[in-house]
């Protein structure tokens, strides 16, 4: 310790910083404070790292009769959709004042996505809006009107002669290596 006082000091500081970082992360992760919980960004969901069960497999937010969109997305099961499905379906029931009464999200076949849009029930004064989308966890938002209660399908249009130019590899390597020198 007497010969290398700087080494002892830096490892102590490193341990202190590490402990403080872990404590702060735990406060954010395990906090039940709604102010922290409302800041979860469901748009920043990354595709899972586990292997896909079949080609073109995907996941959807899934819940049944959730009270609101936040809780549906937050507690959605993390499972692969069955092979006989291609889309994510969202069914949103709400009052004439816009208050959600029930939200269901699931994997769906093309037949289940045949009827999208909004329907108002005169008897119960409730509205049901249904939407379908294609893609990994694409059903983040709720359909609330005829504008967003749609069947959203991605159409990849690739042509053989429209590829972007590939940068010259040695130049690209130099750009990444130069800051390290």
Distance between the amino and carboxyl termini: 34 Å
Proportion in β-strands = 15-25%
What class do helices, strands and sheet pairing give?
A: alpha+beta
Would you identify the CATH H-level superfamily of the largest domain?
CD59
| Number of helical elements | 4
InterPro entries: LYPD6-like, Snake_toxin-like_sf
Organism: Jaculus jaculus (Lesser Egyptian jerboa)
GO molecular function: acetylcholine receptor regulator activity
Membrane topology: Lipid-anchor; GPI-anchor
3D structure, described in words:
The longest helix has 26 residues. By secondary structure, the protein is α+β, with helices and mostly antiparallel strands. The chain is 25% helix and 20% strand. The chain is globular and about 65 Å long. GO terms for molecular function: acetylcholine receptor regulator activity. This is LY6/PLAUR domain containing 6B.
Give me some keywords for this one.
alpha+beta, single chain, disulfide bond, 2 domains, 181 residues, CD59, 4 helices, signal, cell membrane, six-stranded mixed β-sheet, LY6/PLAUR domain containing 6B
In short:
The protein has 181 residues and is α+β, with helices and mostly antiparallel strands.
Secondary structure layout plus pairing:
Blueprint: H1 5-30, H2 34-37, E1 63-66, H3 69-74, E2 87-95, E3 100-108, E4 117-121, E5 126-133, E6 151-152, H4 169-177
Parallel strand pairs: 5-6
Antiparallel strand pairs: 1-3, 2-3, 2-5, 4-5
């Amino acid at each position: 310790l007497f010969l290398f006082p700087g080494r002892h000091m830096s490892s102590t500081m490193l341990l202190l910083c590490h402990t403080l970082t872990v404590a702060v992360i735990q406060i954010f992760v395990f906090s039940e404070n709604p102010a922290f919980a409302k800041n979860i960004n469901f748009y920043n969901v990354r595709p899972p790292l586990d292997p896909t069960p079949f080609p073109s497999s995907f996941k959807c937010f899934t819940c049944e009769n959730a009270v609101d969109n936040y809780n549906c997305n937050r507690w959605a099961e993390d499972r692969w959709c069955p092979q006989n499905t291609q889309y994510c379906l969202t069914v949103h029931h709400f009052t004439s004042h816009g208050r959600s009464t029930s939200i269901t999200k699931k994997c769906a076949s093309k037949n289940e996505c045949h009827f999208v849009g909004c329907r108002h029930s005169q008897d119960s004064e409730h509205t049901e809006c249904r939407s379908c989308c294609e893609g990994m966890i694409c059903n983040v938002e709720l359909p609330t009107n005829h504008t967003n209660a749609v069947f959203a399908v991605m159409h990849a249009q690739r042509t053989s002669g429209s590829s972007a130019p590939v940068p010259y590899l040695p130049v690209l390597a130099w750009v990444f290596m130069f800051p390290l020198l």
